[in-house]
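User: Fold this one for me? It's Xylan alpha-1,2-glucuronidase.
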Amino acid sequence: AETGYDLWLRYQPVEAQWRDRYAALVTQVTAAGGTTMLVAAGELRRGVAGMLGYDPVRRETVIGDGAVVLGTAQSPLIAPLGLPLAKLGREGYLIRSAAIGGKRVTVIAGNAEIGVLYGVFRFLKLIQTRQSLDDLDISDAPRLAVRVLNHWDNLDRYVERGYAGQSIWDWQKLPGHKDSRYTDYARANASIGINGTVLTNVNANADVLRPEWLARVKALAEVFRPYGIKVYLTARFSAPIELGGLKTADPLDPQVARWWKDKVDEIYRAIPDFGGFLVKANSEGQPGPSDYKRTHAEGANMLADALAPHKGVLMWRAFVYAAENPDDRHKQAYTEFQPLDGKFRDNVLVQVKNGAIDFQPREPFHPLFGAMPKTPLMMEVQITKEYLGFATHLAYLGPLWEEALQADTFRPGKGSTVAKVLESGAATGMAGVANIGSDVNWSGSQFDQANWYAFGRFAWDPQAKAEPIARDWAAMTWGNDPAVTGPIVRMMMESREAVVDYMTPLGLGHLMATGHHYGPGPWIADLARPEWNPVYYHKADARGIGFDRTATGTNAVGQYAPEVAARFGDRKRVPEQFLLWFHHVPWDYRTRSGWTLWDELIVRYDRGVAAVEAMQAAWKPLAGKVDARRWEEVRDFLAIQRDEAGWWRDASIAYFQSVSKRPLPAGHAAPA
Ligand code: GCU
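Assistant: Here's what I get for Xylan alpha-1,2-glucuronidase.
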């Protein structure tokens, strides 16, 4: 039975009419090269065996009609073709219908073998999605250099904010046993262009830097290397004290710098292509340079200098807000980081979350994007759905990421989208907090696989669009029947807005109950730090609801470019989806639909629940059209989601009504 283990690389047999067309153009596979080329040929062989039903790898070396020729620019068969590979970079590829020795062939070429592997996955996708293989002329290259998963995996295999079982890193059996799952993980990532993985949690445990752990990391790096995937680790800033026995971790102390340099050299001796470090410093209790009155730049640069001789990268997170700081949490990262623009080393990437608070169902883009033109910024998104119903709620995040990437920062001028800001740095990248665990379906649900898939596609091309990505994923994961993919893509495209509606409509945010962040908790007001309490975010009172972040309030809007600030700061001009994010609005304020704000809120909660019911209705007729086991799992999860969407709506409305003292509008569905 299908479990979902194969992800989007299912390679199921194609329909007879397609099989004959494809078979004529894939008669044999020719490849020569190193381990990555072997992996590329192996993947093609596996895909063809599954989809077309034969083994295309032949003993004879003579090229015939229909050969698929894999190679780099230097390969003897490819070089004479004079293909325009130069501008595609190390990871780009080209797929072309061509003639070699009078035979009609398909060439899959890259400047390096990794490009060929990416090209092979693209070629297989053509078959998976039933595209023609005639007259191919495809070329592609990633627009961002560092495309990494961030695993929030602890060394005891507990995954922080993970909803798919334990960590897939089975440290206890490493390095002696390399689970075959690591290879499948690498295949899946390579198929979507992910080229790095941070193995450990941002809330870091320094132990991973000990020799016995590095031996395990090395084993994983060896599995991933042929797939173009580098390993990175989180570095706990206080490691020189904890592991090195030093009295300080002050980044300006020469002994501290020496300790890190030696540690980095030790890592590179074991893992010559080690990617670098990811650091969460002075955030939520993590140690960092401010412990020694040093800046983020001073802390980051010290580590960056240790990595630079090895071409390592330092990813330094901008997710900071301090207990002692009474200012709007929304503003704190900008306040701390923006003045440091230009002060970071070239191999530092400042890693900024898509929004200023924390991976909410909807947030405006982070004001740091565009505001640090002399500093490479990478964007961090959360693939795991900490605030969107974990693995049980169906929420396709493609539209969320597209919205963030297409947001116009107006810095330096109109059209400067977040995507363009990301592409413009001397170093470029995007990070996704992984949703992967030991569950047989990897992500805790079938549909959460789509978020892993979409992350890779957006990191490769931040200009990508969510809907075509959903279509590709649906076809590869559920088959090519339009009667199946049509409803699935519609469900996906509407799913995130449904979550916004039943959890945090109209620009509300951070109303999830404490700690787990799963259910509603808008009434919570008693936590130690004010900015952890949901009441801090919605500020509902007898008069109205919402957070005044305009000039009359915290003036967080002032951190955006003037054009953006003018729009967000004006109740009439702010997109209604951000209304309560930036404004405290009276309950009887008229929204664009003509309702009072109070009624509009309730309409949105109802709409969210109705959207989940619509997903249930769309899924039901797919019984028998998709395999039973996966169908039943989705059916069950949608039922859970429907119940919980109802809880969200009913609990939220009941609480807000206790504050607003307003009657429920006519037509509002009674609580289930
Ligand atoms: C969120 C999340 C934490 C995580 C933090 C981070 O606040 O709840 O678990 O550590 O983000 O990104 O560092």
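One thing worth pointing out: The mean pLDDT is 97.
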